[in-house]
C-alpha cells in the first residue's frame, strides 16, 4: 500500500512506522487509513503513530472524523527551531538555581520532559540537542568534580511495624497480605478496560448501536466498576471459589466499585435453600458484603421477552432433536434450523404452556461457538417447581442464554470468570449484540486447584454417602464450610489467594501453602492455652503451698501487653506421656529420672522421685519434687502441663487422600474412593485442657502450647468440649 504512493524504495523510518502500525493495530479495517498517512509523510514519528492508534481504538464507529483525527495526531503541526529554543529556555529559567547548585549532577531528563510537555509534537532529538547546548552555555564545560559519580543517598530503612491484627472490612480488605491482592487488582495492574471503554478490549464486537448503549450504561453507573459473583446454588463453595470471590469482590473494592452476589438459579431440580444460605454465609465470612443479592430468576420475565425478540429477529428457533443427538462437538445440524419465525413463536409459546414434555423441544440460538459447538440451547422444558417462582414456569433458561443477559441488566462492567468459559466469550458478545442491549466484557482467569483433595459436588456426595466423611463441612475437605470448621481464619484463605496471585494460567497448589498462611494469621490471633492429649498423672510431693496456687499465663508470650489468663497450679498436674522416659537417649531433653524439666509459666522445676506402674508395667503416675526455678539449675527443657483440667475431645486431621491427584487414573487406577487415607482422622477422647477455655464458643481458636492451633467444634456440649486441630505449629517436612 505504501509503495503505491512512494514507489518501490521505502526509507527505514517509514518502514519502521508501517511495521509498528500493522503489529499494534487490533482492528485491520483501519490499516489502509493509517498507511495512507504514513505514506504521505503526514505521520512521521512513533509519538504520532501512538496517538493515531489510540484515536482509532477510541473511535470504533465509521466514518472517522478526519479533522478531529488529524488534530489528535499532530498532522500538519510544524514545530520550528525557534519554538524549541524558547521552550527549553523557559524550562531552564525555572530550574536555574538548582542547575547552578548541582551543575551536571542535575537530572537533565526533567528538563527534557518539561520541554516535551510544552511542545508535544516536537522531535525528541532536537529538544535534547537544544537542552545540551543551553546547559553548556549556562554552566560551561564539565569540570573534574562534574565527572565524579554522584553519591547515592542512603535509603532510610522503614521502621519495623508491628503486625496488626487483620480486620475484616466491607468488600474484604483484610490484613497486609490481602492488601497486596488489592494492589494486584488496582487500576492499570490488570490492563482491564475502563468502564464505558468496552470497545477497546480485543475481540469486543462493535455494532452501530454500541456507542449509544455505552453512553446509556455510563449514565446509569456513573462510570463505576461493577462485578458479580454468580454461583449456582446446588452445592457448597470450595477453595477454588475463594479465589473467584476474592477476584470479583477484590477487583471492585480495589477500584472503588461494587460487586453483586447473583445466584444462577436456573436449574430448579438441583437447588436447595441450604445452599443459598451457606453461599452467602461464606461470602460474608470471607469479609465481603455484596452490593446487592440478586437471582437470575428475578429476571425470568425479561429473559422470556428477549427470547421472543430473538426468534422474531430470526436468531433462534424451536428444535426437537433429543439431548443425546446434540451432545458432543459434532452433532448433526438441526433439521428445524430454518423453520419460519411464526412457527417458532407458536411452538415456543406451547413450550411455555407445558404442551411439550421434557426433552421434546428446546429453543436454540443460531450461532457457532469458539469451541465449534453449534446452536447452543437457550431454553428447555422442566416440570419442576422453582424455589422462588413456584410453578409459574415450566421452561427454564440455560447458562449460555442467561448469564450475559443478567450481566447486561445489572450493568456489569467486568464479567470475570474462569478460563474454561473462554469458549463462551463469542456467544456472550453475540447474544447481547443480537438483542441490541448493553454488552459487558468477559475476562477470564485461571482456576485455583488444590492437591490431595477433590472438590466436585458429585465426588463429595459420594464421600458422604460411603461414610468416608461426615458431611460437606467435614474438616478433611476443602469446602469453605469445612475449612471454617477446621479453624482456618478467613484472613488466611484471602492471603492464600493473594499469594496464588491473579493468574491467567490454572494454579495447582500444595495444601501446606494454605496451612502456612493459617499459621501466620493464627500466630497473631489465637491466644495461648495448655492442653494434654495423652495425660500422665504427676504428683508433687513437696508442693510449696497448703492450697492451689494461681499462675498467670500470657495470652501471647511475645507481647504480654495483650493480657494474661489464670490457671490453677496444685499438687496434681498432668503432662504428656511422651514428655517422660525412663531411659534417656542421646538428644532427649525432657523429663526422666535424673533429668529435671521446667513447667512452663509456673516458675517451678520438677524432678522424678518415684515411677508408679500398673500390673502390665505401664507407667501410670510419677511422684516428683519441685524447686523454684530462680534457685535451681536451668533445665534442658520446659514442658506444658494442666492442673484441675477440663475433659475434652480432640480431633487430629491428616490428608484425606494418599496421592496428590486422587482423580487421576494414571496415579490412582482404582478411583478416588480407593485412595482414602486410613489415618486421616484420629480422635483423642480423653484429652485435658486448662480451665481458661471454659467459656469458649464454636469456632474460637487457640494455640495449645507445643501442640498446634486448635478450633472449637460445633459438636461441643456443656461438660464436653470438642477441639479440631487446624494445623501443627510447624510444617511437617514430609508434606512440603
Automatic annotation (TrEMBL):
Family matches, as CDD domains: GlnRS_core (cd00807)
Enzyme class: ligase
Membrane-crossing residue ranges in chain numbering: none
Annotated ranges, domain Glutaminyl-tRNA synthetase class Ib non-specific RNA-binding: 9-124, 127-215
Region forming the signal peptide: none
Swiss-Prot/TrEMBL GO biological process terms: glutaminyl-tRNA aminoacylation
UniProt xrefs under InterPro entries: aa-tRNA-synth_I_CS (IPR001412), Gln-tRNA-synth (IPR004514), Gln-tRNA-synth_Ib_RNA-bd_2 (IPR007638), Gln-tRNA-synth_Ib_RNA-bd_N (IPR007639), Gln-tRNA-synth_Ib_RNA-bd_N_1 (IPR042558), Gln-tRNA-synth_Ib_RNA-bd_N_2 (IPR042559), Gln/Glu-tRNA_Ligase (IPR050132), Glu/Gln-tRNA-synth (IPR000924)
GO CC field: aminoacyl-tRNA synthetase multienzyme complex; cytosol
KW Iron (keyword) present: no
Catalytic activity: tRNA(Gln) + L-glutamine + ATP = L-glutaminyl-tRNA(Gln) + AMP + diphosphate
Glutamyl/glutaminyl-tRNA synthetase class Ib anti-codon binding domain: residues covered: 526-626
Family, as annotated: Belongs to the class-I aminoacyl-tRNA synthetase family.
Protein name as it appears in the record: glutamine--tRNA ligase
Upper taxonomic lineage: Eukaryota, Metazoa, Chordata, Craniata, Vertebrata
Amino acid at each position: 500500500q505504501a509503495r503505491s504512493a512512494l514507489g518501490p524504495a521505502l526509507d527505514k523510518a517509514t518502514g519502521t512506522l508501517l511495521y509498528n502500525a500493522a503489529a499494534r493495530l487490533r482492528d485491520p479495517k483501519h490499516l489502509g487509513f493509517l498507511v495512507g498517512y504514513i505514506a504521505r509523510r503526514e505521520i512521521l514519528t512513533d509519538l504520532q503513530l501512538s496517538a493515531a492508534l489510540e484515536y482509532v481504538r477510541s473511535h470504533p464507529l465509521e466514518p472517522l472524523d478526519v479533522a478531529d483525527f488529524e488534530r489528535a495526531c499532530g498532522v500538519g503541526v510544524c514545530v520550528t527551531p525557534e519554538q524549541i529554543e524558547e521552550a527549553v529556555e523557559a524550562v531552564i529559567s525555572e530550574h536555574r538555581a538548582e542547575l547552578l547548585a548541582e551543575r551536571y549532577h542535575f537530572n537533565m531528563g526533567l528538563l527534557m520532559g518539561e520541554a516535551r510537555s510544552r511542545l508535544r509534537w516536537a522531535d525528541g532529538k532536537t529538544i535534547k540537542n537544544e537542552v545540551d547546548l543551553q546547559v553548556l552555555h549556562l554552566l560551561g564545560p564539565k569540570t573534574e568534580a562534574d565527572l565524579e559519580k554522584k553519591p547515592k543517598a542512603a535509603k532510610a530503612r522503614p521502621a519495623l511495624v508491628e503486625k496488626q491484627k487483620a480486620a475484616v472490612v466491607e468488600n474484604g480488605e483484610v490484613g497486609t497480605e490481602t492488601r497486596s491482592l488489592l494492589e494486584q487488582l488496582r487500576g492499570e495492574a490488570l490492563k482491564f478496560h475502563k468502564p464505558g471503554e468496552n470497545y477497546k478490549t480485543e475481540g469486543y464486537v462493535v455494532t452501530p448501536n454500541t456507542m449509544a448503549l455505552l453512553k446509556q450504561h455510563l449514565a446509569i453507573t456513573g462510570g463505576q466498576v461493577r462485578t458479580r459473583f454468580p454461583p449456582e446454588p446446588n452445592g457448597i463453595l470450595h477453595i477454588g471459589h475463594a479465589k473467584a470471590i476474592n477476584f470479583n469482590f477484590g477487583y471492585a473494592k480495589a477500584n472503588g466499585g461494587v460487586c453483586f452476589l447473583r445466584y444462577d438459579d436456573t436449574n430448579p431440580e438441583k437447588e436447595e435453600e441450604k445452599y443459598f444460605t451457606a453461599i452467602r454465609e461464606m461470602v460474608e465470612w470471607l469479609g465481603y458484603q455484596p452490593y446487592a443479592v440478586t437471582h437470575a430468576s428475578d429476571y425470568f420475565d425479561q429473559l422470556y421477552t428477549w427470547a421472543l425478540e430473538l426468534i422474531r429477529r430470526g436468531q433462534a428457533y424451536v428444535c426437537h432433536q433429543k439431548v443425546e443427538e446434540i451432545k458432543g462437538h459434532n452433532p448433526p445440524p438441526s433439521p428445524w434450523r430454518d423453520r419460519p419465525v411464526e412457527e417458532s413463536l407458536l411452538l415456543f409459546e406451547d413450550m411455555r404452556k407445558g404442551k411439550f414434555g421434557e426433552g421434546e423441544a428446546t429453543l436454540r440460538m443460531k450461532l457457532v461457538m469458539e469451541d465449534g459447538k453449534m446452536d447452543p440451547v437457550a431454553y428447555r422444558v422442566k416440570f419442576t417447581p422453582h424455589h422462588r417462582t413456584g410453578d409459574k414456569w415450566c421452561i427454564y433458561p440455560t447458562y449460555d442464554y442467561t448469564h450475559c443477559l443478567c450481566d447486561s441488566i445489572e450493568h456489569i462492567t467486568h464479567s470475570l470468570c474462569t478460563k474454561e468459559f473462554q469458549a463462551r466469550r463469542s456467544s456472550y458478545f453475540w447474544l447481547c449484540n443480537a438483542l441490541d442491549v448493553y454488552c459487558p466484557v468477559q475476562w477470564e482467569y485461571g482456576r485455583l486447584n488444590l492437591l490431595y483433595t477433590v472438590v466436585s459436588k458429585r465426588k463429595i456426595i459420594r464421600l458422604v454417602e460411603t461414610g468416608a466423611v461426615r458431611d460437606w463441612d467435614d474438616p478433611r475437605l476443602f469446602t469453605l464450610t469445612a475449612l471454617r470448621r477446621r479453624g482456618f481464619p478467613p484472613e488466611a484463605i484471602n492471603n492464600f489467594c493473594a499469594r496464588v496471585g491473579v493468574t491467567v494460567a490454572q494454579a495447582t497448589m500444595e495444601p501446606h501453602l494454605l496451612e502456612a498462611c493459617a499459621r501466620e494469621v493464627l500466630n497473631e490471633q489465637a491466644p495461648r492455652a495448655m492442653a494434654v492429649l495423652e495425660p500422665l498423672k504427676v504428683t508433687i510431693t513437696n508442693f510449696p503451698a497448703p492450697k492451689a496456687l494461681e499462675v498467670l499465663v500470657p495470652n501471647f508470650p511475645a507481647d504480654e501487653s495483650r493480657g494474661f489468663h489464670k490457671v490453677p497450679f496444685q499438687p496434681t498436674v498432668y503432662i504428656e506421656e511422651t514428655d517422660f522416659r525412663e531411659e534417656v537417649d542421646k538428644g532427649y531433653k525432657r523429663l526422666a529420672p535424673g533429668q529435671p524439666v521446667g513447667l512452663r509459666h509456673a516458675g517451678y522445676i520438677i524432678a522424678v522421685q518415684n515411677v508408679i506402674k500398673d500390673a502390665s508395667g505401664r507407667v501410670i503416675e510419677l511422684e516428683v519434687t519441685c524447686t523454684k526455678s530462680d534457685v535451681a539449675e536451668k533445665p534442658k527443657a520446659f514442658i506444658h502441663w494442666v492442673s484441675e483440667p477440663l475433659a475434652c475431645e480432640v480431633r487430629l486431621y491428616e490428608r484425606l487422600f494418599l496421592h496428590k491427584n486422587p482423580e487421576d487414573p494414571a496415579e490412582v487406577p482404582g478411583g478416588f474412593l480407593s485412595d482414602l487415607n486410613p489415618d486421616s482422622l484420629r480422635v483423642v477422647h480423653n484429652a485435658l485442657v486448662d480451665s481458661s477455655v471454659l467459656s469458649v464458643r464454636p469456632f474460637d481458636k487457640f494455640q495449645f502450647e507445643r501442640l498446634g492451633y486448635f478450633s472449637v467444634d460445633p459438636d461441643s456440649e456443656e461438660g464436653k468440649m470438642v477441639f479440631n486441630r487446624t494445623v501443627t505449629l510447624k510444617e511437617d517436612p514430609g508434606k512440603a
